[in-house]
Amino acid sequence: MPKQKTHRGAAKRFKTTPSGKIRRRRAFANHFLEKKSSHRKRRLNSPAQVAQEDKKTIRRLLGS
Questions:
Q1: Labelling 40: which of 1, 25, 32, 53 has CA 20 to 30 A away?
Q2: pLDDT at 3
Q3: What does the alpha-carbon distance between residue 3 and residue 42 come to, in Å, rounded to a whole number?
Q4: CA pair distance 24, 33, nearest whole angstrom
């Protein structure tokens, strides 16, 4: 059976940490930033973890 190809869209959106956790970027951090508080913008800047239900699917898409 041939090798599984990496889903390029998923590869751009998700990264795996050395410990195996999957990180993603938060939404709502691109524009309309003037009306958001600095506390909210700072929180949006940090990476988030992927929900438990989605981990299996994302790992399959990333080919790992």
A1: 53
A2: 86
A3: 40
A4: 20
